[in-house]
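Researcher: Please predict.
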Amino acid sequence: MVTLKFGIAFIFAIILLVLRQDIWLVIAVLSLIVALLFKIPIDVVLQAFREGILGRSTVRLILAVWLIISFGEVLYRSGYLTRFVSSVEGIFRDQRLAFIMPSAIIGLLPMPSGAMLSAPLAEEIGKKLNVSREELTFFNYWFRHIWEYSWPLYPGLILASAITGVPVWKIGLRQVPMVLVAVLIGIFLLMRRIPSVREVGEISVWKILDFVVVLWPIYVIVTLVMILRLDLIYGLSAVFLLVVLIYRASLRDVLASLKKGFSWKIFLILVSVMVFKSELEVSGVMEHLPGEMVRWGFSPVVPLVLIPFLVGFLTGVNSAYIGVGFPVLMGILGENLDMIFIAYVSGFMGVLLSPAHLCLAVTKTYFRADTAKLYRMLFPSVLALYSLFWLYMWIFRL
């Protein structure tokens, strides 16, 4: 009974996640349990292991994530972010927009702990608006994460693409509506909770021009990857090189960025996910899951919602709910963009609400926000976001 066996394996994974074990170890144990429960022959397991480590899709996945993290680091070391911050200041007369803009734009840049980078900027502008600690935390956190549904530089999208075989740009374009909904909810709450404060003084054409020009890496990435549909690795390599040349980053900074971009922990997560995916594909155990779930009376949507949400909430990490959930759900997901959309968004709702989400934890600590008051803002906002997602799906697709 395929459904029951996967249920047992998933329970073991949940226990390990609750015990705060490393994600790569959880996925490795999950692979072992699945192999034992389904009595997958050892030669099939070894074949999956070889393909999962040495396969072309694995190599490309590791290279893409390494480039993205290195790119964020070279932006910081080259002085780009310093110029970016100075260009943002004074552009928006309504200081409420100036308040959220650093979080939103830095969210487009693949910076580890990006919310902490924008937090001091938000705090400085927030003093003029007299916002509470909880509002500082919420808006910095919310607008930092509005792009994760569709921006091609987020490792979660790249990992989902590697598992499903659907190009990053296709998944990203399909999920753009969630970006728009997240922005609208954030702006609505901003305008409702915080009174308008306008800066005295004129905004010069040169300041606006400088602000437009400084965003050039984003324009190039969108053009190459989303419009021209150039391979992400080639597009990102081109932008990386342009940043190095234009901002005259030293060889030492470039090498340091590339070195910091590689993490053994991330490497182990990516490899373990691809080995698990390969094991399920080679053994063929996933082929019977959709039909069996129908015979059991389950709607395929139920596991698409529950599995990613639970893993996302328990870990607070995108790569966890995608790495653990997507391979198991491949019999339902296939290359169906709607099914991928449901699983991705459901998992991300868990991540947004998770106390284990590092971004939320460090931002809350930085602003010294009260947890209960913060969640009184966060929970209704995430609920509204998820409700509008289902309304959208009902109207336009399902």
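Model: The first helix runs from residue 2 to 18.
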